[in-house]
TrEMBL record:
Domain of life: Bacteria
Pfam families: bPH_2
InterPro entries: UCP026631, YdbS-like_PH
Domain YdbS-like PH: 71-152, 268-337, 414-488
Membrane-spanning segments: 20-42, 48-72, 187-211, 236-258, 367-386, 392-413
Coiled-coil region(s): none
The protein's name in its UniProt record: YdbS-like PH domain-containing protein
Keywords: Membrane, Transmembrane, Transmembrane helix
Length: 499
């Protein structure tokens, strides 16, 4: 192992098959950008054009040369003296990327579908505060990818000779025996019960986009048959309400099926492997991914569950690390379809216990009035001011909006809670998908409370918790209790810094 690791201390190139992968990548990008012209040519031309053939050959040669140059100009190595990982890349505009090993947040190993044919892997290196991957190495052998990941994520540093005892290796192998396997049936249940609303609107948006692109394309090709929104709208409105509802129902079922298939492909054979410092996720049918979550760097654990998933006893758990937040879903380590026993076991590996909360704060009922004014009264007032006649003509739509919006406000109010004990804080929120965000008091960066002048008489205020993975706020709580909680949090934060 010492010989393998020492090879990283001098410039290395990727596997030679990387040339072919780069060529395929460039080719896919060109095809994605020029597919419209290919479509037009197929339907517009009747004979093959020799100039088109020469152009295609020229593009292929250019892409192949670019792939070769990109391969030979990409090198990586470890600067052992400065403890940095360094990457040189670029053909014309050359660049050098240096990453301190202490700043490396996450190293992921994946094996996309094309990589499987050549038995090579892709490695992504991520650092705090970045929404994009800092470094991508596209073609490594499994041994090189694993060795490089293990070195970059080692917390305790290794001497300059990079010697690792057999006893240490043996202990690591024993530690990796502890694992959790998420069953395919659990992932299937999660796929059916999650993200169907987003999938529905995504499918509708895709259909609208496809219709728009096809309509523009037919105009360019000068087809006799043209598509326009007025024609489609008139034909749709000619249907009866049951037919329209049936179409909507079919689209919803299609969205659920698409989301379920996508979830199964993405999270297939999900395996969690634990050792003393971290746990790794390995999953994927066509694109196999392997990511590591360092236990000490986990800032927030989010448990998401809707009513159906609660009955099925499954949930979706996210682990937010330093520099990560829930806005960048791709960079968040998550486990789908995990049951209650597996979830309790996984959380206990990080915090050595499952938090139990003795205290709870609930928002004041005045929050319902504020939200009703904000989401119902103000929109209807603005709509009335803009087009009074339209609002009066469709008064039944306005009534349905009021009823549905008020129902959502009441459900959101009921779910909004703040739990806390001596070591942990949990924020509960949501309407259908209910989130429970839990974090340790000692890992908080700071805590702030605030109160508007009109809240003084009612003794209400809000509190905001700042972590390395983002900030979390809850409003309309008892201000005196918030002060006590603030003082306790500040004490614990300062005490952790001194220790």
């Amino acid at each position: 192992m010492e010989d393998r690791l020492s090879s990283f201390f001098k410039p290395q190139r990727q596997s030679k098959i990387g040339i072919f992968l780069l060529f395929i990548y460039y080719l896919v990008q060109v095809v994605k950008g020029l597919w419209v012209f290919v479509f037009v040519y197929i339907f517009k031309k009747e004979t093959f054009n020799i100039y088109l053939l020469l152009t295609i050959i020229g593009v292929f040669i250019f892409l192949l040369i670019s792939a070769v140059l990109q391969y030979f100009n990409f090198t990586y190595y470890i600067d052992q003296e400065n403890d940095e990982f360094i990457i040189h890349e670029g053909i014309i505009n050359k660049s050098v990327t240096k990453i301190k090993r202490d700043n490396i947040q996450e190293v992921n190993i994946s094996q996309p579908f094309v990589h499987r044919f050549f038995n090579i892997y892709k490695l992504d290196i991520d650092t705090p505060g970045s929404s994009e991957k800092e470094v991508k190495i596209s073609a490594l052998t499994k041994q090189n990818a694993t060795d490089l990941k293990n070195y970059l994520l080692t917390e305790k540093g290794i001497d300059k000779n990079f010697k690792v005892s057999d006893e240490t290796l043996q202990n690591e192998e024993i530690a990796e025996v502890r694992s959790i396997q998420i069953s395919t049936f659990s992932i299937l249940k999660y796929g059916i019960t999650a993200n169907y609303v987003q999938s529905f609107f995504a499918l509708v948006s895709l259909l609208i986009y496809a219709f728009s692109e096809l309509s523009n394309l037919l105009k360019k090709v000068e087809f006799k048959t043209q598509l326009d929104y007025d024609t489609i709208e008139s034909r749709v409105l000619a249907f009866s309400i049951p037919v329209i509802l049936t179409i909507v129902f079919v689209v919803i079922i299609a969205a659920i099926l698409i989301n379920t298939i996508r979830t199964l492909i993405k999270f297939f054979n999900f395996k969690i492997t634990e050792n003393n410092q971290s746990f790794s996720f390995e999953y994927g049918l066509f694109n196999t991914r392997n990511s590591i979550v360092n236990k000490s760097k986990v800032q927030v654990i989010t448990e998401t569950q809707n009513w159906i998933q609660k009955k099925m006893k499954i949930s979706y758990v996210k682990f937010l690390q330093i520099g990560k937040n829930e806005e960048h879903e791709k960079n968040v380590a998550a486990v789908p379809g995990i049951n209650n026993q597996e979830k309790a076991k996984l959380i206990s590996t990080i915090w050595n216990k499952n938090p139990v909360f003795e205290n709870v704060l609930k928002p004041n009922f005045r929050l319902i009035i504020v939200n009703t004014f904000q989401w119902i009264f103000v929109p209807l007032l603005l709509f009335f001011a803009i087009d009074k006649d339209l609002l009066l003509n469709y008064w039944f739509v306005a009534i349905w909006y009021v009823l549905v919006a008020e129902f959502f406000i009441l459900v959101s109010f009921r779910n909004l809670k703040l739990f806390y004990n001596e070591k942990f804080i949990r924020l509960k929120s949501g309407i259908w998908d209910v989130d429970n965000r839990t974090f340790e008091v000692e890992k908080l960066q700071t805590v702030k409370i605030s109160q508007y002048f009109w809240q003084r008489k009612t003794n209400l205020g809000s509190i905001t918790f700042y972590t390395s993975a983002g900030r979390f706020k809850i409003v309309a709580l008892n201000f005196l209790k918030l002060k006590k909680l603030l003082n306790y949090c500040v004490y614990k934060i300062e005490n952790s810094k001194n220790n």
